[in-house]
Amino acid sequence: MDCLFCKIAGGEIPSKFVYEDESVVAFRDINPQAPQHILIVPRKHIESINAFQVEDKDLVAHILVDVVLKLAKDLGIDESGYRVVINTGDEGGQTVHHLHVHLIGGRSMQWPPG
Ligand code: 5GP
Ligand code: ZN
């Protein structure tokens, strides 16, 4: 499958991971929207939230409970605050069709989003 994030997660495109384990990798966004902008990507190809299966529940929990929290602490933004975003579909602004969680921080955010 010709998928950018499968290639990054699988090591086919060499990348510097800020975190990796058996089910996810995390790396810096190539076009950061804030001083800290990390993408957390499951190794499993899941196209979007719309493609979640029941068996993905543990993976989703792992990403939020373990990985987002650890990275927010490691990056020193857990106290100051941060944003966790999963863009989904065209109107959601999804451009890479392999599910990924944006962890964005290090500056004040606006609401509503653009
Ligand atoms: P989306 O718009 O799908 O939610 O987010 C895709 C993100 O992937 C964008 O923020 C974009 O900057 C980032 N991105 C696209 N290609 C690459 C790449 O080759 N390497 C890295 N590190 N990030 C990428
Ligand atoms: Zn993929």
Characterise this structure.
With 114 residues, the protein is α+β, with helices and mostly antiparallel strands. It has one domain (4-105): HIT family, subunit A, CATH 3.30.428.10. The chain has 2 helices and 5 strands, in the order H-E-E-E-H-E-E. A 5-stranded antiparallel β-sheet has the order 1-2-3-5-4, with helices on one face. Strand 2 (24-28) and strand 3 form a beta hairpin. The longest helix is centred in the middle third of the chain and has 19 residues, at 57-75. The chain is globular and about 40 Å long. The N and C termini lie far apart (32 Å). The mean pLDDT is 98. It binds guanosine-5'-monophosphate and zinc ion. Guanosine-5'-monophosphate is lined by residues 4, 27-31, 39, 87, 93-96. Guanosine-5'-monophosphate binds at residues 4, 27-31, 39, 87, 93-96.
Q: Keyphrases for this structure?
A:
binds guanosine-5'-monophosphate, five-stranded antiparallel β-sheet, 2 helices, 22% strand, HIT family, subunit A, alpha+beta, binds zinc ion, 114 residues
Portion of residues within helices: 10-25%
**CATH domain fold name:** HIT family, subunit A
Spatial strand order of the main sheet: 1-2-3-5-4
Strand tally is 5
Q: What sort of overall outline do the alpha carbons produce when their principal axes are compared?
A: globular
Order of helices and strands: HEEEHEE
Helix- and strand-based class?
alpha+beta
Task: Write down the Rg.
Answer: 14 Å
Summed over residues and divided by their number, the pLDDT gives a mean of 98
State the fourth-level CATH superfamily: HIT-like
CATH architecture: 2-Layer Sandwich
Residue runs with pLDDT of under 50 for 5 or more positions: none
